[in-house]
Amino acid sequence: RAIILHGSAGTGKTSSAYALANEMGWEITELNASDQRTAKMIKKVVGSSSKMGTISGSKKLIILDEADNIHGKEDRGGEKALIELIKKTGQPIILTANNIYDMSYALRNAGKLIQFRSITTNTMASVLIEIANKEGIICEIGVIAKIVENADGDLRGAINDLQAIVQGKADKA
Length: 173
Prior knowledge:
Layout: E1 2-7, H1 13-24, E2 27-31, H2 39-51, E3 60-64, H3 78-88, E4 93-97, H4 105-108, E5 112-116, H5 121-135, H6 141-151, H7 155-172
Parallel strand pairs: 1-4, 1-5, 2-3, 3-4
């Protein structure tokens, strides 16, 4: 009923969840780390989504981003409520986590684990070059190499760095 996508930041976990929903024609309900994730809030937002279908009759993908950060006083009872919802849901649920071992044993075992590995430097360079080409950006290969080196496997960070460099050049023009 739930899958847990885990791996380093910037490896495509959340993007993959959105791509799946798009491919399947599913609506999305998302709670991320900036949202309050108490038992009350999880039952209110995720609970209602897990039981109700959409107007069109399609599935609704429930995404709980950074599930490895559900703990402490801020998330009173949230983890327990989430585990109960996973057991009862009629809708697919995807949890994402950077560090699977920051999640409790009970939450880790509530879903199927799928690991996302760091993006290789060659793949990152290829993606950045493709983005630059599609956006009409002229970028020296040394700049791409430096961005990739600094990104340490975080493709999202590398894309953000490329964007910052391009915007910096535009601001100076």
